[in-house]
Design a protein that fits this description.
Blueprint lengths: L8 H12 L5 H10 L6 H13 L3 E4 L2 E4 L1 H19 L3 H8 L5 E6 L2 H18 L5 E7 L3 H5 L4 H8 L4 E7 L4 H11 L5 E3 L9 E5 L2 E6 L2 H13 L8 H9 L4 E7 L1 H13 L4
Parallel strand pairs: 4-5, 5-6
Antiparallel strand pairs: 1-2, 3-9, 4-7, 7-8, 8-9
Length: about 280
């Protein structure tokens, strides 16, 4: 069960402050929140800290506070178990089981290209619908196959986002020559902060768009095809286009669990962004 952090924005702000720096006194937490524009009172901050202590989310160290490592470990285990559970379900059980998750649904794509096109459209909808508001996009994936397909889209994406209040972080577990080439190509535009060859992450592919989380269930044969393609490709201009199209258009069933849950999106956002502080 995910601890309910997002229902009270003050609680979420406290977690965010302690993700950046810890341990801190209640007064320092309050001052940092106030400096970021929060209008919350000190008493409200102290009350929420007390709640988070009782729930085991925070840990008190003398007169200072930090995020409880046991809570983080529990969150990781719960999420990993959930992914394992759903990735091994048959289609009918998956659809029935997902109904037990609050604000969740399943979308099934019959090719990798269908999934990539859907996410691209969703991304631009988020950018257009949240004009003037802060937009957070975070990704964690084995490899960025979509980045190859959408290489020509990067200049347009840059023009669309350069005037927006956007923060974009991407973690890639792979460290092949092609992963490095994608990283270098991305640096030309500077749209997203990106790390490759990242170790010790959760064994899932996830995308976060503000308060919406996408959990990607890729079939094992498709995962192997993508892995083989990335290992065999040395540079972007020498890609085997025929093989790439074969992977993109292969008939399959990709289940994507979409969860509109502030708590879960906040957790994944902090989890992914933390790797950029190491």
């Amino acid at each position: 069960m995910i601890t309910q952090l997002g229902k009270k924005s003050t609680r979420g702000q406290i977690i965010e402050v302690l993700t950046e720096e810890f341990p801190l006194t209640a007064k320092k937490i309050y001052n940092k929140m106030k400096a970021s524009g929060s209008g919350v009172t000190y008493h409200a901050v102290y009350d929420r800290i007390s709640e988070l202590i009782k729930e085991g989310v925070l840990k008190k160290v003398e007169l200072q506070y930090m995020i409880n490592p046991k809570w983080i470990s529990k969150m990781n285990n719960n999420l990993s178990n959930m992914i394992i559970k759903y990735s091994h379900m048959s289609d009918d059980k998956l659809y029935r089981g997902i109904q037990n998750l609050s604000s969740a649904s399943v979308v099934t794509f019959h090719s990798f290209k269908e999934q990539i096109d859907y996410i691209k459209k969703y991304k631009y909808n988020i950018l257009n619908e949240n004009e003037g508001q802060k937009i957070t996009i975070c990704w964690m994936a084995d490899h960025l196959l979509a980045a190859i397909v959408n290489l020509g889209d990067r200049p347009l994406f840059y023009e669309t986002t350069k005037q927006k209040n956007l923060e974009h972080f991407t973690l890639v577990k792979g460290n092949t020559s092609l992963d490095k080439a994608i990283l270098n190509f991305n640096k030309k535009f500077g749209i997203t902060k990106m790390k490759i060859g990242v170790k010790g992450t959760l064994d899932i592919n996830v995308g976060v768009y503000n308060d919406t989380v996408f959990l990607f269930m890729h079939p094992q044969d498709l995962i192997k095809d993508v892995e083989k393609f990335f290992k065999a490709t040395k540079t972007i201009d020498k890609m085997n286009i025929k093989q790439l199209n074969k992977i993109l258009n292969k008939k399959t069933s990709i289940h994507v669990i979409i969860i509109k849950e502030h708590d879960l999106s906040e957790y994944f956002t902090h989890y992914i962004k933390a790797f950029f502080k190491k």
